[in-house]
Design goal:
The protein has 123 residues and is mostly helical. It is 72% helix and 0% strand.
């Protein structure tokens, strides 16, 4: 697949928008240490990580397919954008809250993979 300059710009702008929407570019106040919670594998925030990553992966896959990408390329683009947003969110959490979570990142990656896979199967 050959992306034209217009497609590259659209993909770049969509990526920036998704990063912004995940909260990576917004200023957040740090929480006091006394309010931090234990990081569990199954918690409400894990559902949010999975769901948002699922939606970003599926949406990016669909946008790439609409831009005439084949299924393989759209899958790579969808997973890459979605997982990049998850990694950026964890970097933001580490910087702002001193709270990097591998468990959150794993849920992000699972959501990304499932979102792209479901979109690929339904395509």
């Amino acid at each position: 697949m050959i992306l034209t300059t217009i497609h590259k710009r659209k993909l770049f702008l969509i990526t920036l928008l998704l990063i912004y929407l995940t909260g990576c570019a917004t200023h957040q106040k740090s929480l006091p240490l006394s309010t931090t919670k234990k990081d569990e594998w199954f918690a409400k925030d894990k559902v949010k990580h999975f769901s948002i990553s699922f939606l970003i992966g599926a949406l990016t896959y669909s946008i790439a397919r609409g831009g005439e990408a084949n299924k393989d390329d759209a899958s790579i683009i969808g997973f890459s954008v979605s997982s990049t947003c998850g990694i950026a969110k964890e970097i933001n959490d580490e910087i702002k809250h001193n709270g990097w979570s591998y468990k959150d990142l794993i849920w992000d990656l699972l959501g990304s993979g499932v979102g792209v896979s479901v979109s690929n199967v339904l395509d």
